[in-house]
Design brief:
By secondary structure, the chain is mostly helical. It folds into three domains: 1-80; 93-204; 313-414. It contains 19 helices and no strands. The protein is elongated, with a radius of gyration of 24 Å. It starts with 7 loop residues before the first helix and ends with a helix.
């Protein structure tokens, strides 16, 4: 006789509560959401099916509340394991593939309150190191730090637990940023950003949740899935409304969606959003931008705008915007992107020598601060220079682009 599989605890609790089918439980959970004042939350039968699978995902906080309310049992008693561990070890996403092995956890140990602040201090240091350390090196360190956070989180409570969870969410967010922007691994970034969102939920930090959700929009944006971009950006803005979001946060959300829209081919909508973002920054807001949001300011907004103008074919405007950015910008990683965009402007304007000059400057910067997005821009420019590939300037660019040093950097620094 075959043994039952899947999350038998949840299934047993469902049947014991009188819900014969998964659809019946889904309906009851949706009704409970309305009763408890949780707006806009509908639970479908597919979600219940996932919860009753052999590897059920950890429910989001609102869903945890519904499940415990309707079924009358603790969330762990219903067969769910938090992503930061259990008695026999943590189970980060990706562990089954061997990329992220379990971490032993002593759940009977109680950490001192200083553990959360110490953990958060290291998280802040990693945030600063992102701008100068080789991505693959920093990524390994950040993930080990996140694994430590997964082990420590069950050993904290109260305000220190929220501090620990917020720092853990930031660590996973940083790791996801490295995976997407530096390592160019969208699938792995998606996994990591889900973990970041789970930790932000434990911290009840809506602003971190908004930032994480906006980062997830880049993933479908890069493949032109506009519907999924819109869905994720709506979620990000919903979370931002729950928090005291600053003008920079709101402007950045516009900029993220604008960049995704340019990838989806809607340059007009992108430029409209960027204009709105400029108005938001000019008007301001009474709230402070969180310290962890160190990737955006007025200069970087102009960088988003210059790229959108380039993709819309507004070459004189793009050139003017990007020249202003490259003069003011001190971030080495972003400079590679701006120089690449300037090279693309000149290539589109049939000025191959100027295009090669900016592309070479980008390669100079990449030799100091590697950034996969910057190298992507240079390669796009080289493809645009195909009509002039017999020209001396293009051949010189090829010598640099495919030289030993650059090629090894491209393979080794990611």
């Amino acid at each position: 006789m075959s043994r039952p599989t899947g999350n038998t605890r949840l299934k047993a609790a469902r049947i014991a509560a009188g819900f014969v089918s998964q659809q019946a439980l889904a309906d009851a959970l949706s009704a409970a959401a309305r009763e408890l004042g949780i707006r806009g939350l509908m639970v479908g039968v597919r979600q219940v099916r996932r919860w009753e699978s052999a590897n059920p995902p950890w429910p989001q906080p609102d869903c945890q509340r519904l499940l415990t309310h309707v079924l009358g049992q603790d969330i762990r008693e219903l067969g769910f394991t938090p992503p930061w561990g259990q008695e026999t070890g943590a189970r980060p996403s990706g562990a089954a593939s061997g990329r992220r092995p379990p971490v032993p956890v002593e759940t009977t140990v109680s950490q001192p309150d200083t553990a959360a602040t110490d953990f958060a201090t290291i998280t802040r240091a990693h945030r600063r190191l992102y701008w100068s350390v080789v991505p693959s090196v920093l990524h390994a360190t950040v993930m080990e730090h996140a694994r430590l956070g997964c082990a420590l989180l069950p050993q904290t409570s109260g305000a220190p637990r929220r501090t620990m969870a917020a720092a853990l969410a930031e660590s996973f967010l940083l790791a996801g940023r490295i995976e997407f922007f530096d390592l160019r691994d969208s699938a792995l970034a998606q996994e990591t950003l889900v973990q970041a969102l789970q930790a932000a939920g434990e911290a009840d930090d809506a602003l971190l949740g908004a930032a994480i959700l906006a980062h997830t929009a880049f993933i479908p944006g890069w493949v032109g899935d506009r519907e999924k971009v819109a869905e994720r950006m709506t979620a990000a803005r919903t979370y931002a409304r729950r928090a005291p979001a600053s003008a920079e946060v709101w402007a950045w959300l516009d900029a993220v969606e604008a960049e995704c829209l340019t990838r989806c081919g809607d340059n007009r909508a992108a430029l409209h959003l960027l204009g709105h973002a400029e108005d938001v920054l000019a008007t301001g807001a009474p709230h402070t931008t969180p310290a962890w949001m160190d990737w955006f300011d007025a200069i970087r907004l102009a960088a988003f705008k210059g790229n959108a103008q380039l993709r819309a074919g507004h070459l004189p405007q793009a050139r003017e915007t990007l020249l202003g950015v490259v003069t003011a910008l001190r971030d080495g990683k972003q400079r590679t992107v701006i120089l690449g965009d300037l090279a693309a402007v000149e290539a589109a304007a049939n000025r191959p020598e100027e295009a090669c000059r900016y592309a070479s400057e980008a390669l100079d910067q990449l030799s100091e601060t590697w950034y996969a997005m910057g190298m992507d821009r240079v390669r796009e420019v080289r493809r645009a220079l195909k009509p002039w590939e017999s020209e001396g300037c293009v051949r010189e660019l090829d010598d640099r682009l495919y030289g030993w040093s650059t090629t090894v950097s491209a393979l080794g620094k990611v």
